[in-house]
Write a structure and sequence with these properties.
The complex is a heterodimer of chains A (170) and B (217).
Chain A: H1 2-8, H2 11-36, H3 43-50, H4 60-90, H5 95-98, H6 100-120, H7 132-155, H8 159-165
Helix pairs in contact in A: 2-4, 2-6, 4-6, 4-7, 6-7
Chain B: H1 3-11, H2 15-41, E1 50-54, E2 58-63, E3 67-75, E4 78-87, E5 92-99, H3 101-110, H4 116-134, E6 139-150, E7 153-166, E8 172-183, E9 188-196, H5 200-213, E10 215-216
Antiparallel strand pairs in B: 1-2, 2-10, 3-4, 4-5, 5-9, 6-7, 7-8, 8-9
Classes of the chains: A mainly alpha (170), B alpha+beta (217).
Chain lengths: 170, 217
């Protein structure tokens, strides 16, 4: 069964899926900077400062949870969705399998860059102290869910298309 | 209806797009719900512009727009607990430090000090010497010395102004700082409040509120 699946997948399908992953990563990176950058330009910090409640980021555990949940939707789900849209637009067959690739690729690129940036800043990723929910679980869930939703959204037939295929004879 | 609008209407009827939008909006609302809950549950009862911070060693009201960090170190020399709070826009800092009996003895014996006024003098001299190393043109002005009451404890304090203090970006600042120290048998309390000299009259009103409602645990 596995062999049959791989025989049906063409080289270009995999390449398009990987390009989708790259596209997803770009969206993840841009939205992280624009919305969650902690150095004052991120929309979340800017809006908290504008509302005069920037001090709530001092409650680090609770704020990290809120931030991780918002990042799930705005950053990871959106990144995966864009990657999935591209992949779904380019590839029509075996979407169930191929849409894993942009989701995983988006997550892996983001995670590897997170490890590299931590390393170059003089630190090391310690799994016991790393916030697994915010750095692994929610990002990979968001990227994969977004990828499937994007891939199926582009290929989902509209009501009009369904009616054209199955004309109502009654 | 334009073509683009019709395309959007059709796209938003697709179940995957609806699920995507629901998840996106749901995550935003949940996140903001948690943020609202943090703000509401830590709202100061004394002043609507302040947040209430409660730790094992101190309860303190701090301005809502100030970022606060806390740290605790406990080792063979004793227990050191500190809170640092700062306004990222106006360059104002508040620091509270609590040292238990062992830590207090360690700090006093290390520098052969016996009381709060000696420690206050040492901290001011050490700070001035460190800044002098960076800029020899720095000047020090003693504005006020005396005693103040914080959480029913009497603390020795000094208000000093340092002019031409270099910052990380090599700009020169004039800063005014209030440093207060209380020492008793069981503990040492250190409080400092620093801001730009030009903002002192405005920012010191904030410090007055912080000091008034500070409660030691």
């Amino acid at each position: 069964m596995g062999e049959a699946l791989f025989n049906e997948i063409e080289k270009w399908d995999l390449i398009y899926a990987l390009i989708g992953g790259g596209l997803g990563f770009i969206v993840v990176w841009v939205t992280s900077v624009l919305i969650f950058d902690p150095n004052g330009i991120g929309a979340v910090y800017w809006s908290l400062a504008s509302l005069g409640i920037l001090g709530i980021i001092s409650f680090q555990e609770q704020f990290a949870l809120a931030s991780a949940i918002m990042q799930f939707g705005i950053v990871h789900l959106l990144g995966g969705f864009c990657g999935g849209l591209y992949t779904g637009y380019k590839v029509e067959k075996k979407l169930k399998f191929l849409l894993i690739i942009p989701g995983i690729a988006t997550f892996l690129i983001s995670f590897l860059i997170f490890i590299a940036s931590t390393y170059f800043q003089g630190g090391a990723v310690n799994l016991s102290t790393t916030n697994l929910l915010g750095t692994v679980i929610l990002p990979i869930t968001g990227n994969l869910t977004g990828s499937y939703l994007g891939g199926y959204a582009i290929n989902w037939p509209t009501k009009e298309e369904t009616e054209k295929k199955e004309p109502n004879l009654t | 209806m334009s073509l683009v609008l019709r395309w959007f209407v059709r796209a938003f009827r697709k179940p995957p797009v609806i699920v995507f939008l629901v998840l996106l909006l749901g995550s935003c609302l949940t996140g903001y719900g948690i943020i609202y809950n943090i703000a509401a549950s830590h709202q100061s009862e004394i002043n609507p512009n302040f947040l209430h911070f409660e730790t094992d060693y101190v309860e303190v009201e701090l301005p809502k727009n100030w970022i606060t960090l806390q740290g605790k170190v406990q080792n063979a020399t004793g227990l050191f607990f500190s809170i640092v709070s700062y306004n990222p826009f106006t360059w104002a800092f508040f620091q509270f430090q609590f040292c238990d009996e062992n830590a207090k003895m360690f700090l006093l014996e290390r520098s052969n000090l016996t009381d709060a006024s000696q420690m206050l003098q040492k901290i001011i001299n050490d700070t001035y010497s460190k800044i002098l190393e960076k800029n020899s043109n720095v000047t020090r002005i003693f504005n006020e010395n005396g005693t103040m009451t914080i959480s029913n404890l009497t603390a020795e304090y000094s208000i000093i102004t340092l002019r031409n203090v270099p910052t990380e970006t090599s700009n020169l600042h004039n800063i005014t700082s209030l440093i207060a120290i209380h020492i008793d048998e069981k503990r040492l309390i250190y409080i400092s409040f620093t801001c730009d000299e030009s903002n002192w009259s405005k920012e010191s009103e904030l410090f007055a509120i912080i000091a008034k409602y500070l409660k030691l645990g």
